[in-house]
Design a protein that fits this description.
17-stranded parallel β-sheet, 21 strands, mainly beta, two-stranded antiparallel sheet
Length: about 250
């Protein structure tokens, strides 16, 4: 009998078989899940920071800092130059994505944390992450400089960080007792901001051991050591023959 039909047997010792029905039910459940995920993405609002009333990002329902809009978890958030300076994260926030695209500088600080989404840095300004965060998405530095001041500023190790040519990731994290390195996987490209800062720049003083991860060269790349840089990272160019250049006054 074809598996596309539902049939039953009279004998109580036999179970009914409905493989066609089961397959259709599974397809329907999968379709419903995909539609729910897609609808959730469509419903995500885009809100823009202005810090007109205060500089606190106080979690879902925050209506005081977002250009007359209300931030809710799951939104796409933008920092486009207005309200530049310190962004005081006072709660756990879970945006879909964070985009900083400005010529001015932002400092994300506070007792709260970023718990989801991606971080995208564009524009010639500087973004400093001083807190510990748990987001699992990727971090993309397309332009300007992103400064890391704690072990978990870049979130969990689930999402890697990519530095585009002309951009810089600065490590300003001082590990405690040489035992708490950043464990973020990095992809490096180019010579950094102005062609001199390095795709990766190390500025934190201390014992070293700032980084323990995989470093992949996406092209020729420069590491600028303005402070001692100890790492047990693996460095690879995946067989492409790229050149890694070390600059800076300190050793690594």
């Amino acid at each position: 009998m074809s598996d596309n039909f539902l049939y039953f047997r009279a004998s109580p010792r036999k179970r009914f078989q409905a493989p066609g029905l089961q397959a259709n039910v599974l397809r329907l459940l999968l379709s419903a899940l995909l539609l729910t995920t897609y609808a959730s993405s469509l419903n995500a609002a885009t809100v823009t920071w202005d810090a007109e009333t205060d500089n606190q990002w106080s979690g879902t329902g925050d209506a005081t800092s977002w250009s007359g809009e209300t931030y809710n978890d799951g939104d796409k958030v933008q920092f486009l130059g207005d309200g530049a300076g310190t962004v005081d994260i006072t709660a756990t926030v879970s945006p879909e994505s964070i985009t900083v695209n400005a010529e001015t500088n932002y400092l994300f600080s506070g007792e709260g944390s970023i718990a989801s989404g991606t971080v995208n840095k564009a524009g010639s300004g500087m973004l400093t992450l001083s807190g510990n965060h748990s987001y699992t998405g990727t971090t993309s530095i397309a332009a300007g400089m992103l400064v890391v001041q704690s072990r978990y500023s870049l979130g969990t190790t689930n999402g890697a960080t990519t530095v585009a040519s002309g951009a810089t990731l600065e490590l300003n994290h001082v590990p405690a007792n040489n035992a708490s390195p950043i464990e973020e996987n990095l992809t490096l490209n180019g010579a950094g901001v102005n062609g001199t800062e390095g795709a990766l720049k190390v500025t934190a003083t201390g014992a070293g051991a700032e980084l323990s991860s995989a470093i992949t060269l996406g092209s020729d790349a420069t590491i600028n050591t303005q402070a001692r840089f100890d790492t047990n990272s693996t460095i690879t160019d995946n067989g492409n023959g790229y050149t890694l250049t070390k600059t800076g006054s300190n050793y690594s």
